[in-house]
Amino acid sequence: VGFVSSNAPISSTADKGSTEWFYSELGQKNWVEAMELNTLSPEMPQLLVEMGMNYDPDKLSKVLADSWPQVYARAITVSTSLGAFVAGLAQDAALGQLERRAPQRAAQLRKLLASLGPSFVKIGQALSSRPDLLPKTYLEALSDLQDRLPPFPTEIARAVIEEELGRPLPDMFISFTNQPVAAASLGQ
User: Fold this and answer.
1) Where is each ABC1 atypical kinase-like domain found (predicted)?
2) Nearest to 35 by CA among 45, 24, 48, 46
3) How far apart, in whole angstroms, are the C-alpha atoms of residue 107 and residue 112?
4) If we measure between CA atoms, which residue out of 62, 66, 88 comes closest to residue 4?
5) What span, in angstroms and rounded, lies between the C-alpha atoms of 56 and 49?
6) Tell me: the pLDDT tens digits for 72-109?
7) Whether the predicted model's global pTM rises above the 0.85 cut
8) Where are the domains of the chain?
9) What is the pLDDT of residues 146-163, one digit of tens each?
10) What CA–CA distance (Å, rounded) separates 153 from 16?
């Protein structure tokens, strides 16, 4: 799940991980929940339809009780991923390489946040506009989270548009391409 070790070479591992996470069951659930979809088109995987979109505290309690291993696994993934990043920063500081390695660590943080999912992307976006908290190198790297994200599945895009506009796409558009023109999350 997009884990980037502090000792691993800084590469495209997290890019692959972010795409894998997004297309995973958990990634799809998180995306649909984040978009607050109330209805889904028949093309959507049955799993997403079965999720339900209305807040129900009893259902939430049952789901959490039934899925505690996944909740703990996610907590461990997030903790170890962020912990490894912080350990890498500490190692850089101890070796006097904090400034020299800043561009690589900034890129690593961007990839890591993208790999951890939508909530962490939002955190990265917020941090990208905080020069009082982060050096310029990090601000520039995290700004990529504003408009350079992997696109999400066309089925979800269709469901969101139909939900927002209240009508099926063929009733509104002559054609609708399956190839995204752009992918970003600030304008949601």
Assistant:
1) 145-188
2) 48
3) 8
4) 88
5) 16
6) 888 999 999 999 999 999 999 999 999 999 999 999 99
7) no
8) 13-172
9) 877 766 678 878 888 888
10) 16
What does the alpha-carbon distance between residue 18 and residue 62 come to, in Å, rounded to a whole number? 28
The first and second tokens of residue 85, run together, are 């990043």
Residue carrying the six token digits 């509104």: 172
In three-state form (DSSP H/G/I as H, E/B as E, the rest C), the secondary structure along the chain is CCCCCCCCCCCCHHHHHHHHHHCCHHHHHHHHHHHCCCCCCCCCCHHHHHHCCCCCHHHHHHHHHHCHHHHHHHHHHHHHHHHHHHHHHHHHHHCCCCCCCHHHHHHHHHHHHHHHCHHHHHHHHHHCCCCCCCCHHHHHHHHHHHHCCCCCCHHHHHHHHHHHHCCCHHHHCCCCCCCCCCCCCCCC
Q: Are 145 and 114 in contact (CB under 8 A)?
A: yes
Name the residue type at position 92.
D
First to last CA, the chain: 25
What the block records as the tokens of 42 is 């028949």
